[in-house]
Amino acid sequence: MSNRAELTIARKNTRAFVSADPIRVALRRRTYIVSAAGGRVQGDPVTLPLQTFRIIPFSGQVWDRTKTTPDEGRVLDVTQQLVGYYDADVQQNDEFDWVQDGISGVYTIVHVSPHRHYRVSATLEFRKTSAG
Fold first, then answer.
1. Where are the domains of the chain?
2. Nearest to 78 by CA among 66, 88, 95, 96
3. What is d(CA 100, CA 87) in angstroms, rounded to the nearest whole number?
4. pLDDT (tens digit per residue) in 94-120
5. Is residue 84 over pLDDT 90?
6. What's the pTM value of the predicted model, to 2 decimals?
7. What are the E-state strand segments in the chain?
8. Four-way CATH pick for 4-131: 2.40.160.20, 2.30.30.60, 2.40.10.270, 3.40.50.2000
């Protein structure tokens, strides 16, 4: 950002954008415990406080990458973006439950952009757990 006024406007624009179609979710974060041997083992997940985001579908031109291809293997299907306020607490591998139109599942944060000056932007993978 070039100056303080521009940063302020960009943050206000993000707040207006998220507020146009907000969701409130409590992210779950994996924890790790150091083992007696000096390694790490997965502990119980921690549930973060509710935060406000917006889910944005990527272009319809994005193909289904859940199918295996000979040259790529299985590539994660990241067809949606999570947008939140610049100070949102989001990390790669955080998860949240989702139910919409009778379909339930889990969203996993695949990648979080390191550029967090005026917003948080992360890509999502959806795993369906049941169909209505």
1. 4-131
2. 66
3. 27
4. 999 999 888 899 999 999 999 999 999
5. yes
6. 0.80
7. 23-25, 28-29, 32-34, 40-42, 46-47, 51-57, 80-85, 95-100, 103-112, 119-131
8. 2.40.10.270
**Phi-psi region at 7: left, alpha or beta (left = phi > 0; alpha = psi -120 to 50):** alpha
Q: Helix or strand or coil: residue 45?
A: coil
Using DSSP, how many helices (H) and how many strands (E) does the chain show? 1, 10
Across 57-86, b (16+ Cβ under 10 Å) vs e yields eeeeeeeeeeeeeeeeeeeebbbbbbbbbe
DSSP lists the bridge partners of residue 52 as 24
Backbone angles phi, psi at 25, to 5 degrees: -135, 155
CA 10, CA 115: separation in Å to the nearest integer?
13
pLDDT digits (tens, 9 = 90+) for 32-67: 899 888 899 988 999 999 999 999 988 655 555 555
**Residue 97 and residue 106 in contact, taking contact as beta carbons nearer than 8 Å:** yes
Read off the tokens for 106.
């889990």
